[in-house]
Amino acid sequence: MAEPDLPLDPGDLFHLCLSVDDVEAAKARLSATREWLWAPVEDWTLDVFLPGGDISRMEASVTYSVNGPVHVELTQFRAGPVTAGSDLVEPHHLGYWCADVAATTENLIGRGWSLDYQVGAVGGQPIAAMMRSPAGYGVELVPVTSRPRISAWLASALPSGHG
Predict the structure, then answer these.
(1) Does residue 1 surpass a pLDDT of 50?
(2) Cα separation of 122 and 47, whole Å?
(3) Is residue 162 one of the residues assigned to a domain?
(4) Is 96 inside any structural domain?
(5) How many independent structural domains does the chain possess?
(6) Which of 98, 14, 22, 35 is nearest to 62 (CA)?
């Protein structure tokens, strides 16, 4: 059973995000103690929608560990509403697969959570949402419709014949 403060299915936990000052340095530091495979680093520029209707531009460099089942996401936030890196000591958020980002966002708000921001929108629906629990930890709602693209991104890092 899920914690009362986290009404999400533990089986939907997809990633743990570490906000870092330098993605390449963080990859090297983590790989020094364990054999990690990393997806190619992608540079993202996204519109994020803040509570109250303001829009901000987020710029970030992002990679995921290919190792799983729960992946490590390394994100270097360069611009937008997110704070600077933590040097691998504190998770920025947990990412959960979500069938309906908008409905789950409303459900969590009804349970006392707050919305930090939503990412983009397609047909009026958010592409993803960054939530804050009453206890203060971050949760990203990642739409399950993103799973094929992310799976292909992770598979691109595998040696030939391993995907």
Answers:
(1) no
(2) 12
(3) no
(4) yes
(5) 1
(6) 22
Residue 48 belongs to what domain range? Answer: 10-155
pLDDT digits (tens, 9 = 90+) for 28-70: 998 888 888 999 999 999 888 888 888 888 899 999 999 888 9
Q: Is residue 50 part of a domain?
A: yes
CA 121 to CA 46: how far, in whole Å? 10
pLDDT-based confidence at residue 2 (cuts at 50, 70, 90): very low
Q: What is the separation, in whole angstroms, between the first and last Cα of the chain? A: 33
CATH number at residue 97: 3.10.180.10
Whether residue 72 contacts residue 26, with contact meaning beta carbons closer than 8 Å, is answered with no
Is residue 1 a part of any domain in this protein?
A: no
Using 50, 70 and 90 to split pLDDT, how confident is the model at 123? low
Write out the H or E segment, with its range, that includes residue 88: none
Non-local (6+) Cβ contacts of 120 within 8 A are: 46, 47, 48, 49, 126, 127, 128
